[in-house]
Amino acid sequence: MSTLATGILSWLGPILLEAGADQLKTMLGDGSAGKIAGGVVDQIAGKLGVQPTKASIEQAYKDNPNDVIDAVQQVDQHYADIEIARNQTMQSQHQLQQAELGAGLLARIGRPLNTILFGFECASLMASVCIVVVRGIPPDLDINSVSPLLALVMPVLTIQGGVIGWDSRQQSLATRGR
Fold this sequence. Notes:
178 residues; 2 domains; elongated
């Protein structure tokens, strides 16, 4: 646990215990404390309308412990809701992957095949451009004769690249949640 998190937990811990903030206790105790402890203090202080400092929160607790406990419980509920949403997202991603595994061959190889084809298409397009540049553009080339080809190729490559990017992002999110 980081020094920041240890310092914050040393004075905020008893309040979390009294408030019954189970989600915050779990998060602050599982190694992610250094990443979120400062944000938790900022949120609690924001709900209380005080500065996000130890002295301000402790003073607010001395003045009215119920307000501080309510603020801690609200922040705890916020993080619990985030955790529930994250779990639901991970479950739906897992269900999608299970469905793909149970599907036919094309469904299983669709993603990798799409990625390989996209790379091949881009390499072919770049090679074609390089060949034209090296050989020189013929002076009698009419751009109107090439534009229909570009009008077909570029949207397809753009959409295919977007699908691959979106799918990679979904896979990254699914992997991080494990």
